[in-house]
Amino acid sequence: MEIERKYLIDRLPFSLDSFACKIIEQGYLSTNPVVRVRRSDDSYILTYKGRGLMIREEYNLPLTAESYAHLLSKADGHVISKKRFLIPHNDGLTIELDIFSGALAPLILAEVEFETEEDANTFLPPEWFGRDVTFDPSYHNSTLSQVGLPEQN
Fold first, then answer.
1. Distance from C-alpha of 136 to C-alpha of 147, rounded to nearest angstrom
2. Which residues are catalytic?
3. Is 24 helix (H, G, I), strand (E, B) or coil?
4. What value does the mean pLDDT of the chain take?
5. DSSP letter at 106?
6. 110, 129 in Cβ contact below 8 A?
7. Does the pLDDT at position 153 exceed 90?
8. Cα–Cα distance list, 4 to 1, 15, 55, 67 (Å)
9. Residue 1, class by beta-carbon neighbours within 10 Å (0-12 exposed, 13-18 middle, 19+ buried)?
């Protein structure tokens, strides 16, 4: 089960140089249900995600580089490229800060995963977090891959 909150980031109040970073590329074989292939540095994963916004099922299976390349060639929509910075936060939480490139630039999203729904509901985001888009499906990566950047209100 994945329990996650998601926020827009307008500006970063600090340098990212000291944080771990992963280079991520991912494509979607299906968006209903969500079936994704991802390369994260040198690891390759096939992921199934169930329905939901803040809480949903998630299953991950390892792939070989060859399997990943074969499946990625079958992806619908745009392949997403982003840098993910892992930023330690209070209570052992980690902020996954995604800086998108290509067609999704200059989008920056912060995601925080939780052990329980109560933890997610009582989370107080840092001051530098922008609008909470947890319950806005237009900010799901699967939607972004099909539709592109949402129009700003």
1. 14
2. 28
3. strand
4. 96
5. T
6. yes
7. no
8. 10, 24, 7, 28
9. exposed
Strands (E), the chain: 2-8, 20-31, 34-40, 43-49, 55-56, 58-63, 76-88, 94-100, 108-113
Distance between CA atoms of 144 and 153, rounded to whole angstroms?
A: 17
**For the residues 34-40, what does the mean pLDDT come to?**
98
DSSP 3-state of 65 = helix
Once rounded to an integer, what is the mean pLDDT over residues 23-31?
Answer: 97
CA 12 distance to own-chain centroid: 18
CB 139 within 8 A of CB 133: yes
Q: How far apart are CA 46 and CA 58, in angstroms?
A: 10
pLDDT at 152: 66
Interval 89-123: pLDDT, tens: 998 999 999 999 999 999 999 999 999 999 999 99
Looking at the DSSP bridge assignments, the partners of residue 113 are 4
All structural domains of the chain: 2-147 (2.40.320.10)
